Amino acid sequence: MKKYILSLAVVSLFYTQSDACAWSDPDYEYFNLFTQSIIKDKSYLPFLHNYSSRFYTDYNASLIPDDNIETWKKFFNNQLTYADTQNLVYKMSMNDLNALKAGKPANPILQKLGTGFYQKYHEAIDYLIEAKYLEPYMSINYVESENSFYYDRDANRKNATALDYNKTIAALASLYNAARNPEIKQRYGYQLVRLNHYTRNYDAALQAFKTYIEPVKLKGTVYFMALDQLAGAQRGLEMNSDANWNFFQVFMNSKDRKESAFVSMKLSDTASFSNIMKRAGTNEEKNMAYFLLGYEDYNNPIPIMEKMYDINPDSEILKVMAVRSINELERNYLPTYYYTEDAAQKTAAKKDNTENSSSKNTSADKPTSEVKEEKLSFWQKIVRFFKNLFGGSKSDKTGNEGKADLSDDELFSNPDRIPFYSRTNYWYDEKTQDYLEDLEKFTEKTKEKSKDEYWQIADAYLKFLKKDYKGSSEILNGIKTTNPEYLEEIKRMKVLNDIVSQPKIDAAYEDHLMKDYAEYFVEKEVKKDTVSTDDYYGDTHSTADFLKDVIANRYFLQGEDGKSFLMNNKLSDLQYNPNSNLVKSVEEFYRKPNKTKFEQQIIAKNMDSVGNIDAFFSTIYGDRAMRLADFEKAKSYYEKAQNFKGIPRVNYDWTETEGRKTTEKQYESAEYNGFKNIPNLVFGHNVWESFGSPENESMKAENYSDFPFIKNSMDKLELANVLIQLKKIGTGNDEKAAKANQLIGNLLYNTSILGYYRQLFVMDIDNSNGGKYNFSNTDRANPYKYYYKNFLDKTYIEPDNFDLAIGYYQKALKLLNNKEEKARVLFQMASAEQGKYYQYEAKAPKDFDYSDPKWSEKEDARQKEMDNLKNQKYRTYFAQLKAQYSDTETTKDLMGSCSYFSYFMK
Fold first, then answer.
1. Helices vs strands, H then E, count in the chain
2. 3-class SS at 766?
3. Distance between CA atoms of 684 and 704, rounded to whole angstroms?
4. Cβ distance 794 to 343 under 8 Å?
5. Which end of the chain is more exposed for a tag (fewer CB within 10 A), N or C?
6. Residue by residue, what is the 3-state secondary structure of 568-619?
7. Is residue 392 within 8 Å of 780, Cβ to Cβ?
8. Domain boundaries, position 571
């Protein structure tokens, strides 16, 4: 995991993706390439597909027409614009309307209309005055039940019970009887039904609907506004079947009340739906009932869509079902990251880094032979974070040389070529189906019946998901439409087909990308004035992001790992998984002469602020050479790394006005920065094992008097020179040679995954816990299968070779004569031997998982087996200590500081 210098520490703990700041939203975890909102009937926008909320919200609310405003606008003979009508009905004060009534309008809109407007529409204006008086009171009073978990947050707000009920009812009835215009008369009737509903006079509300609404014989907007109130009163009387039916009518016949009517319907059981279907007398009602059923039950929408098709293949709600179905498929075909089971689920075994701990985690799942695709939910990410998420996939079966020689057909048919179907949907169970074939057949059939170009666009998109790019392009080229939303979707899909159908990305095609599609790859600087949702959830994934992933995947399959890496990551990200092979590939791209324009402007721009790039690479190579005890090679690299500016780290801060702010970490003069300020304690030994304690508490220096060239503080070049000198001295046959070999062994152990200075040669700034310090997966050639996205989620560095440290300790042991010193060296050897066990343990087969009903029994048996193996094969130096050196003061001291050693000795 990427280790930031965070002011928001909890954020780094719970969210592992590098491109997001805080919480997780499932609707940000796929590429929304097929724009759902292109449906023509915008009143169904809330019913498009999403997971993060009950209704779709990613649209402009003004797209849904307000039935009431449209009705008033028509009533006033379109003398007012929609905006002016909205102002008159909802925003204008009673005083403004009374001034118009008095012949002295002050409001600019009313002045423009003139005093004759009131004379012509006096009943309507009088109604609006009465409605504006009532509106502040038009809410139902909250009544807390004895089992309620909620409370009235605003007990002092107005509600309908604050009105004089009898007086208000009488006044409204009088106004109703006096009104001559049937629309205005019905509006007074609506107020009577609503007032009775909100005062919980449910029987009176039902009677008011019969007395004041039905006799008017109008079934327009006001009728359904009143029907909505009637249904609410019926719900209060537990007339649930009638209430559902009337809410259903409101849902069908209104534009802006569909969402509220749907919420008010109780369709949680089969009987409720059956009752609506039984009462459905028209094809339109039956069609709508099927829509509601399909909306609630979504494992496979095709059967419901077939029933809707039989009723009306050109209905708008059938298009809504289709676009929801496409979106569901998209989430499995176009996730923002493709996970594999053996990469994501493999449990890493790592050393417990709690203070004074000597226990080790011991579980490691056996990789499965069948690769299953899986998308992790946010909560799964948290669980697997604590199970050590840093997994890896199986080792590569072919090298990059083999990849580079693949033909176009081999590249195009590669099963790892995105996009492809993967079961990424963690919201449903195994019943979730890949119904792409069935949906394509349905779409092909429907486009022949419907005149709407929507079905042709949908068919082309489904063929795109099937990788039938030629068929998709042919359909797109034949569509004739003037709909701007359709045209925009067609344009984007043509680009997708072109890029995704290209077998190999070579220099000529890179030139084509920059010439024709630069807008999708050249990032534009966006200045933000306020904090947006993206600051919380990360950036919204776009077509450009998808294409970037496609290109990264193509480079990966072609064996161009360096370019693949830089499509999704910055050069500085190599610090988190400094794998030598990948670093070499990235460096090869860095040094490539005559880069194409695409390589220069799109890929190379991610060779970001690491300071001196050559020094950055040299430091990584030098570190690897040090871990391999090749001190001469390390020196040659470190000589080229003296301009290393420090491991690039970022400080995060957050403000309410500016959102997330990042600044580059500045290292203090005496602070370890990845190259400088290494203390001579690196040659010492543990006093106790505590990674979080200060170094002078956890470590103790050896006697360096024979080695005056060991400075108190060194940089890596100086350290390499010291090791070269120690190695030369270690070839002797005296006590000094023994001590030199012991110091080299100490350094190799102390900078291993078990050592206090484990950060020194893995491009880290301190020894706090993280993915670099897991035992599993570090020896995998490449844990990535598709491309290097989410690079920071997997461990990807070469393993420590504990035999190197043990080898130097053995040389020291042969030359030492002092029994106390030999005991110390043997304990160090035993500690290094434990590293070999942990490496074995992390890869040990395990043919059961947490779902196994006998997991506990099997785990206990496996642990017993592992413990026996540990004592038989990985306790040789502990056994030698016990047998030959148990009487030494060194051994007695060690028993006091190491609880496990004490347990072993007893």
1. 42, 7
2. coil
3. 10
4. yes
5. C
6. HCCHHHHHHCCCHHHHHHHHHHHCCCCCCHHHHHHHHHHCCCCECHHHHHHH
7. yes
8. 533-633
Rounded to whole angstroms, the Cα distance separating 690 from 716 reads 24
> Phi first, then psi: what are they for 620, rounded to 5°?
-65, -45
Q: Is 340 in a helix, a strand, or coil?
A: strand
Q: Does 402 fall in a domain?
A: no
> Using CA atoms, how far apart are residues 334 and 344, in angstroms rounded to an integer?
18
- How far is C-alpha 540 from the geometric centre of its chain's CA atoms? 10
Distance between CA atoms of residues 37 and 733, nearest Å: 81
- CA distances 903 to 835, 877, 887, Å, are 19, 15, 16
**Mean pLDDT, the chain cut into blocks of 10 residues (906 residues total):** 37 34 59 88 90 82 92 95 95 93 91 91 95 90 58 65 93 96 96 96 96 95 96 94 94 94 79 84 92 76 92 94 91 80 38 36 31 42 41 43 73 86 58 81 94 95 94 96 95 94 94 94 64 43 88 94 95 93 96 95 91 96 97 98 93 76 88 96 91 92 95 97 97 96 97 96 92 79 87 87 96 92 90 92 84 88 89 86 78 62 58
Rounded-to-integer distance, Cα 90 and Cα 900, Å? 76
Q: Other CB atoms closer than 10 Å to residue 320's CB: what's the count?
A: 22
DSSP letters spanning 38-52? G-S-GGGGGGS--SS
Q: Count up the domains in the chain and report the number.
A: 1
CA distance readout (Å), 320 to 37, 253, 266, 291, 455 = 9, 16, 21, 9, 11
Q: Give me the sheet containing 5-6, strands edge to edge.
A: 5-6, 650-655, 659-664
Residue 603 sits at the vertex; the CA angle it makes with 779 and 344, to the nearest 5 degrees, is 35
Pairing mode, if any, of strands 678-679 and 713-714?
antiparallel
659 backbone dihedrals φ, ψ, rounded to 5°: 75, -145
β-pair type (5-6, 699-700): unpaired
Query: What is the three-class DSSP state of 652?
Result: strand
Other beta carbons within 10 angstroms of residue 616's beta carbon come to 26
Signed CA dihedral, 547, 553, 557, 563: sign only = positive
Q: What does 52-117 look like in DSSP terms, one character per residue?
A: SSSS---S-GGGS--HHHHHHHHHTTT-S-HHHHHIIIIIS-HHHHHHHHTT---SHHHHHH-THH
In a domain, 495, yes or no: no
Residue 198 CA: distances (Å) to CA of 140, 195, 230, 239, 366:
4, 5, 11, 17, 63
pTM (two decimals): 0.81
Residues 308 and 446: their CA atoms lie apart, in Å, by 11
Question: Which backbone phi and psi does 54 adopt, to 5 degrees?
Answer: -65, -35
SS3 of residue 123 by DSSP? helix
Q: CA 710, CA 726: separation in Å to the nearest integer?
A: 10
Residue entry with tokens 């409370």 = 151
Q: Cα separation of 757 and 764, whole Å?
A: 10
As beta bridge partners, residue 654 has 660
**Residue 623: inside a domain:** yes
Residue type, 77: N
Half-sphere exposure of 247 (CA within 13 A, CB side): 26
Q: How many residues are given for the chain?
A: 906
AA letter at 785: K
Q: From the CB of residue 180, how many other CB atoms can be counted at a distance below 10 Å?
A: 7
Quickly tell me which residue has 């005056």 as its tokens.
708
Place of tokens 């002011």: 7
Alpha helices (H) in 666-773, listed in sequence order: 695-698, 716-729, 735-750
Q: Is residue 778 part of a domain?
A: no
Please, are residues 262 and 251 in contact by the beta-carbon 8 Å criterion? yes
Q: Report the 10 Å Cβ neighbour count for 229.
A: 25
Determine the Cα–Cα distance for residues 66 and 85; give it in Å rounded to an integer: 11
Angle formed at CA 330 by CA 329 and CA 333, multiple of 5 degrees: 90
The answer to whether 663 and 653 have CB atoms below 8 angstroms apart is yes
Distance CA 445, CA 217 (A): 41
Indicate the SS3 state at residue 820: helix
Given the DSSP bridges, would you call strands 699-700 and 685-686 parallel, antiparallel or unpaired?
antiparallel
